[in-house]
Amino acid sequence: MATKEAHSRANIEYNRRQDNIMIRPSKEMGAIIRQSAAAENMSVQGYVLQTLYARTGATGGGVVKNPETSSLSLEQRSCLISPDREKILRDILQDIVLNTAPGERTALSEMLVQIINESVEQNADSVYQTMTDSLL
User: What does the pLDDT look like over 9-47, one tens digit per residue?
Assistant: First the structure.
């Protein structure tokens, strides 16, 4: 019984320290957010918080823990590729590098950086705008 009371007091204290922000995205946007979170093996709360930390440049948001369940407790840094996607990307890049002559690898590296930068620039604003629109 004492354990139950201590747990209850700890929950009350935790809730006093935390803010509560509710969002109401459209059903479609909610499904996109859930699917994106699942693809990163994260809870929706953890995924949204990491996205907001990255977007706002807030400090202290480098790693968001998923307290909701132990099955989603893998911690990931903000805006990095999930381990599964990283492996796929490494496999693709390894194939490209192995089929590129050693003298052309610097040019290949520059091309890949350019592709990444263009992709980020083209897609970042539209993704964040879609999320922002759904939150408003």
Answer: 888 998 898 888 889 999 999 999 999 888 888 889 888
Alpha helices in 18-82 (DSSP H): 27-39, 44-56
Alpha-carbon distance of 32 to 126, in angstroms, equals: 14
Same domain, residue pair 16 and 60: yes
Task: Look up residue 136 and give its two tokens.
Answer: 């408003």
Q: How far apart are CA 60 and CA 68, in angstroms?
A: 19
The three-state secondary structure class of 63 is strand
Amino acid at 19: D
10-16: long-range contacts (C-beta < 8 A, 24 or more apart)? none
**Domain, as residue range, for 103:** 81-136
- Answering whether pTM is above 0.70, one says no
Strand partners, 63: 77
Q: Are residues 73 and 90 in the same domain?
A: no
